[in-house]
């Protein structure tokens, strides 16, 4: 079932199958669960051995809400202080922030 959903999402993306693209950021301290939340929301998985994000990571999720097709680009930022200057540049152009 997951493979079929991934194939449908890839097909929708290749033909411009969405009405709006939204860039969302997951921000918060290191170790609070940003990466786990992202993995659960985009792939319905949970990994007890989730590694810390280095820099930034992102995943895509397609949704339809009230007939509007959305492509969510969800960016997972590193929580460590040493990456703060790097991740701040990814805030530009974001339509939403999820504080974890």
TrEMBL record:
SMART domains: RAB
Keyword Cell cycle: no
Pfam families (UniProt xref): Ras
Keyword flag Nucleotide-binding: yes
PROSITE patterns: RAB
Keywords per UniProt: GTP-binding, Lipoprotein, Nucleotide-binding
Organism domain of life: Eukaryota
Record GO terms (molecular function): GTP binding; GTPase activity
Family in the record: Belongs to the small GTPase superfamily. Rab family.
Name the UniProt record assigns to this protein: Rab1-prov protein, related
């Amino acid at each position: 079932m997951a493979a079929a959903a991934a194939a449908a999402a890839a097909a929708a993306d290749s033909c411009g199958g969405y009405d709006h693209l939204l860039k969302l950021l997951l921000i918060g301290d290191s170790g609070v669960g940003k990466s786990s939340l992202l993995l659960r929301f985009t792939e319905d998985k949970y990994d007890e051995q989730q590694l810390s994000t280095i820099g930034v990571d992102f995943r895509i999720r397609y949704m339809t809400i009230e007939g509007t097709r959305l492509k969510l680009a969800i960016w997972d930022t590193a929580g460590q202080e040493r990456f703060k200057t790097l991740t701040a540049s990814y805030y530009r152009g974001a339509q939403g922030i999820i504080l974890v």
